[in-house]
Amino acid sequence: MTNDTTDQPLLRIQEVAAETGLTSRAIRYYEEIGLLEPAARSDGAYRLFDASDLERLRFIKELRDDAGFSLAQIGQLLEDEVARQRNRERLRTTSEPGERRAILQDARIRTEQQIATLREKRDRLDTMIAEAEGRLEHIDGHLVELDAGLEAHS
Amino acid sequence: MTNDTTDQPLLRIQEVAAETGLTSRAIRYYEEIGLLEPAARSDGAYRLFDASDLERLRFIKELRDDAGFSLAQIGQLLEDEVARQRNRERLRTTSEPGERRAILQDARIRTEQQIATLREKRDRLDTMIAEAEGRLEHIDGHLVELDAGLEAHS
DNA sequence: AGTGACCTTTACGTCAACGTCAATGTTGCG
DNA sequence: CGCAACATTGACGTTGACGTAAAGGTCACT
User: Fold this and answer.
1) Is the model's pTM score more than 0.85?
2) Minimal Cα–Cα distance from A44 to chain B, Å?
3) Number of CB atoms found within 10 A of residue B114's CB
4) Which of A26, A136, B98, B137 is placed for a possible disulfide with A22 were both Cys, Cβ 3.0 to 4.6 Å?
5) Beta strand B47-48 with B40-41: parallel, antiparallel or unpaired?
6) Angle between helices B97-153 and A51-65 (to 10 degrees)
7) Angle between helices B51-65 and B13-20 (to 10 degrees)
């Protein structure tokens, strides 16, 4: 069937940095504060990252840059790294359907929570946009009023 | 006509803090980095804030908390304080229509710029939401697949 | 086996955005 | 006028999110 002994190409930190747009330092820092654990280490102690690590790092960067969350908030929002490692292992080892289902359900809940949090933030932005549009119309009102005054004067 | 010798009630810093949800320290800091200049000072040197100051501070807080902008970015986005003081004065003194029109046009441009910036940020959030929804459907796909397997098995 | 490019940990430095004293002055009420 | 509550300007401290330099190992290649 499907080959799940995935022989993924593992990347070293600088390649990951180039790929994600983060710095090596930032990546190490994220590990330090528990945002991710690289998939493996080399015989020497080089950090080795797999595709899932890259995905996670890209997501972290988006949450930081685009959504403007703090790393602490991102930690809350993301599955904690301990559980992620556990599930990564469990999904590879077990093919017991109940187990797989539980893991997937777990991921589903978290993803829905993430969507809710993102929507909240977007809604607040929408409110701010609406307010700004209100100010714009207010200004336009004054401008029209001014023009009316000029017209009446001529 | 309209009474423009507005005798506004001026607030002291702690009242402003209570009103806006900022701390006194933060408000002083915003002044320090040039985000706003209180409308007046008392005989002693107490800072005194008017309604326009409150509005500006509330906007700053929203930009910081809800939109996640840095104070530097907020400084860019807001009319710089020097111009604001100048315009505040000019709008009160001059009733020359050309002058008033210029000031209003100026405010209009800035407000439109603010709206554009906010929309950019909202669009990036929308993209992230769409991506998260994609992940959700991906998970659901796996779940359905799993259920199908179970069903076929029974 | 040697070399250059990359990696490791450790540790101190930095910048933003304030918090927190300390020493002193101001307001307004009885 | 006396006093409590609030204000002022320094100035130093703190936290988050890294930057940067030092002292040394590792990898891949010749």
Assistant:
1) yes
2) 35
3) 21
4) A26
5) antiparallel
6) 150
7) 50
- Helix runs in chain A, H state only: 13-20, 24-32, 51-65, 71-77, 81-93, 97-153
Let me know: does A92 contact A4? Beta carbons within 8 Å: yes
Our measurement of CA B44 to C1' D1, in angstroms, reads 19
Q: Most distant CA pair in chain B: distance in Å?
A: 87
Measured between alpha carbons, how far apart are the two ends of chain A, in Å?
86
B143: chain A residues, CB-CB within 8 Å: 101, 104-105, 108
Contact criterion met (CB below 8 Å) for B39 and B53: yes
Give the C-alpha separation, B110 to B98, whole Å: 19
CA–CA distance, A136 with A146 (Å, rounded to integer): 15
* Sequence-distant (≥ 6) Cβ neighbours of residue B30 within 8 angstroms: B36, B57, B60, B71
Instruction: Write out chain A's pLDDT in tens, 154 residues.
Output: 444 445 679 999 999 999 999 999 999 999 999 999 999 999 999 999 999 999 999 999 999 999 999 999 999 999 776 788 778 888 888 878 888 999 999 999 999 999 999 999 999 999 999 999 999 999 999 999 998 877 776 5
Segment B27-57, tens digit of pLDDT? 999 999 999 999 999 999 999 999 999 999 9
The whole-number Å distance from A44's CA to C1's C1' is 19
Closest to B128 (Cα-Cα) out of A73, A67, A110: A67
Residue for token pair 């603010």: B114
Closest chain B CA to residue A68: B68
From residue B49, alpha-carbon distances to A82, A83, B55 in Å are 50, 51, 10
Among candidate residues A86, A127, A84, A130, the one with its CA nearest the CA of residue A107: A84
Angle CA A89–A93–A94, to nearest 5: 115
